[in-house]
Amino acid sequence: MGRHRHEKAYLTAHDAGLTGCRQCGKVWPKDSTQCGRCGAHLQPVSTASLQRVWACWWAGLFCYIPANAYPMLRTNMLGSESNSTIMGGVIDLVGHHNYGIALIVFVASICIPIAKFIAVAYLALVVGKDKRAGGHPHLVIYEIVEFVGRWSMVDVFVVAILSALVQLGAIASIHPGPAAAAFALSVAFTMISAQSFDPRLIWRGPKVSSPPHD
Amino acid sequence: MNTTLDPAAYLACPHCDTLHHSKHLAATERARCARCDTLLIAPRARSFIHVIALSFTAMILMAGAIFFPFLKIDAQGFSNASSVFQAAMAFSDGLLLPLSIGVLAMIVGLPAVRFAALIYVLWPLTHGRPAYRHARTVFRLTEEMQPWAMAEIFIIGTAVALVKVAGLAHVSLGPAFWAFCALIIVTALKNSYMSSWTIWDAIATKKPI
Question: Structural domain of residue A59, as residue ranges?
Fold first, then answer.
């Protein structure tokens, strides 16, 4: 059917001169500013919303630098103290032949955050242009970013559990490092950045006119 | 441009803005967006009662998860036990204190508040009574909190931490760990019974104006 090349024309609330509530889906006249059903602020479909996406994107990126530069964990084993950064932790795990866990930590704390930065930036750069309408691939990217984003927080929880649990006096103790806070902030900012992205922009393109769908 | 459309007769997909005729579905029907396949309406028979029951269950499990021992570690005569609360408080010394508060909110606070808020919103609706005061605001905040409630991510974090410690010491799992696992399953079940559109519709239509 050539689904991607010849997208069927769909009438959007925006094209019909109406505003849809992103929270509950209720439709209101164009100039309404607040949803009368759920009370959410009604946002017009506009590239102006991308400003907030970019602001949080940069904030997240700046937090991601100290998150990698400073130690995540301070481990004290039989009197000798060692600091490990995120990457250092992965290298340690590989050194101890824990390849599976090394891969999980590497993907969750390094690959996913970087992929998320790239994906959000890509979406913010390509959408909202009048030239092109419809983009199932873009929607897929958006949904993956929204779904996966919160899972990066797993690293912060690992640090919390290890620090609370491994307190064995002289034998071994683990304390959190400053990178944990930077990493948590970075994840939070990228989550807000992805949430601020208005997926309705993905579909904005040449005006269409067809009856609403059932 | 067509300006004769009556807004009340339609719903717009929150993901792609496509207009659909809104209608009340039978209990087993589901409505998906014609363009982007987002689930729009999914009423299930007696689903409000299910959500309330599962939210109560989740709150009881949460209480257990907070107060029972979570993990215990033994190595060469030394031992240490940690509760979920202590895990969140791991960052509490010095500059990392705000992170402790954030972690506590994400794994315990927000999930618990969400369950309580859902019961508050749905309880009168199941009895055919108008929604309680501020139900609108409460439910909207509940929806906005959803991505920040990370109980299930905490359990995955526990699994990773256990593997990291496994070589170093002997770890035993406490009742709170199992309570937390059950909590995750109950939450997932609850989410599958929830349809935001149906709840919004019920709040709006049963409200005396």
Answer: 47-203
CB-based contact B88 A160, cutoff 8 Å: yes
Q: Where are the domains of chain B?
A: 1-43, 47-205
Do A129 and A29 belong together in one domain? no
Which residues in chain A have Cβ-Cβ distances shorter than 8 Å to B98? 181
**For chain A, how are helix, strand and coil distributed in percent, rounded to 5?**
55, 15, 35
In the stretch 4-23 of chain B, residues with CB closer than 8 A to chain A read: 5, 7-8, 10-21, 23
In whole angstroms, what is the distance from residue A193 CA to residue A51 CA? 10
Asked if B104 is an interface residue toward chain A (Cβ–Cβ < 8 A), one would say no
A38 shares its domain with A92: no
Q: What pLDDT, in 10s, does the model give residues A67-103?
A: 999 998 888 877 788 888 888 888 887 887 878 878 8
**Chain B 41-70, residues with CB within 8 Å of chain A CB atoms:** none
Same domain, A84 and A3: no
Write down the pLDDT at residue A186. 93
CATH number at residue A187: 1.20.140
What is the spatial distance between Cα B153 and Cα B85, in angstroms, rounded to a whole number?
A: 16
Local structure of A58: helix, strand or coil: helix
CA distance A81 to chain B (A): 16
